[in-house]
Write a structure and sequence with these properties.
By secondary structure, the chain is mainly alpha-helical. It contains 7 helices and 2 strands; from the N terminus they run ααααααββα. The chain folds into 2 domains: about 40 residues; about 60 residues. Strands 1-2 form a two-stranded antiparallel sheet. Helix 1 runs antiparallel to helix 2. The relative contact order is 0.10.
């Protein structure tokens, strides 16, 4: 979802500063939520700006670039390793779930085929 435009944010704050109504009335006038009006006023008070604040949300991947390289080398040598065996191999470096390991394997473009992992080429994907 896109953040509210700076122009609209400025008009909301200006209307509040000019005492053109309560926060609820201003929210209704500009067709925004009351929470947005409260958030803008609090943000201006705390940060001194009403610009959108961008945040990186979500969990970081368990396997960073270096660990992905190690996983790739491990899969090249042990193509028949199970997720549990991979988890045990990396237990000293990484503490993560089996699903996190499966997601990392997908990012490396390895696919599980019967009883081993295989790297899928670009032509096979189609």
């Amino acid at each position: 979802m896109k953040p509210t435009s700076v122009d609209l944010r400025e008009r909301i704050v200006a209307a509040y500063d000019a005492c053109e109504g309560t926060r609820r009335q201003i929210a209704n006038r500009f067709k925004v939520s009351l929470g947005l009006v409260k958030k803008l006023l609090a943000q201006r008070k705390n940060l001194g700006t009403i610009e959108p604040q961008y945040q990186n949300v979500g969990r970081k991947p368990a396997f960073d670039d270096e660990n992905l390289k190690q996983l790739d080398k491990f899969l090249q040598k042990h193509a028949d390793a199970t997720l549990t065996e991979i988890q045990e191999h990396f237990c000293g470096n990484i503490s993560c779930s089996l699903q996190a390991i499966a997601n990392a394997i997908k990012r490396l473009e390895w696919r599980y085929k019967k009883n081993r992992y295989m790297r899928v080429s670009k032509t096979e994907k189609m």
